[in-house]
Task: structure prediction
Amino acid sequence: MKIQGFCLAATLALGLSAFAQEAPVVTINGKPYTSDDLDHIRKNLPDVFRRQTEHMNNKTFVDTLGFLLTVSDLAEQEGMTEKEPYKTQLWFNTINFLSNAYLAQINSKLEIGEKDVDEYYEQHKGEYEEKRVSAIYLDYDPLPELAEKQGRTPVTEQDAWSKAEKLLVEMRNGADFADMAKEHSSDAGTAEKGGDLGFFSPDDQSLSPDVKKAIFALAEGQISSPVKDGGRYYVFKVTEVRARPLDSVKAQVLQKVQTTKLQKRLEEIRNSVKVEYTDPAYFGNAAPAAQ
Result:
């Protein structure tokens, strides 16, 4: 069985002498492998390869391992580890793998306490706001001919936009938004409530990108310009802004704290890199002058 991309022979060819006292279950090209050896290999493969092999029976896995080890040996006999571009690629794969493994280890060992979460939440409450929104719906007919067939006078997109602008002028001159919604909104269910839609958060999946952008650009008491979305125009008003309780956003806050701590550690590592530009001309304007 072929495993796509499963040519990490250097990983598979580990010397697993820790289990030497156990009787081998197979010999591959003269090298004995115990059941613990094989289990150790399968357990410690990179995730993508472990997923590819976890449903293999033992024989299929050994056959695959044997093929890869043989091909790897042939490559070494050809001197490919010292030939370009393979030599550089092998070097880069090694440093890239070790770098990713080390960063993953750093991330897994970050110490995050309740105090960290509480402090971040208090300092960034604005990121976890939710807004109570009211809306006036102004529908139009994308297919005017269909409205005519139904015996209705079509409402064009221009009609809906013009009405939205007219209502905005009235509200800027003191008209009450809830009264305007009750009288003019196309959506009867929300119109009878003065347009009230309830609370929304920035991660609410029920809002389209355009609607979300319009709503979360508003401060409490502000009214939006007409927003076109889904065959109608909307006019929104934010009637209340409040912070969501920590318990409801704790997972998000925890992720933010973890990311912040990881970025701080990465910055420390970057700052520890010692680079001396001994030939600034090679780098053009990108490097500082040599000291």
The chain has two domains: 9-102, 123-243. The chain has 13 helices and six strands. The longest helix spans residues 246-272. Residues 123-243 form a domain with the Chitinase A; domain 3 fold (CATH 3.10.50.40).
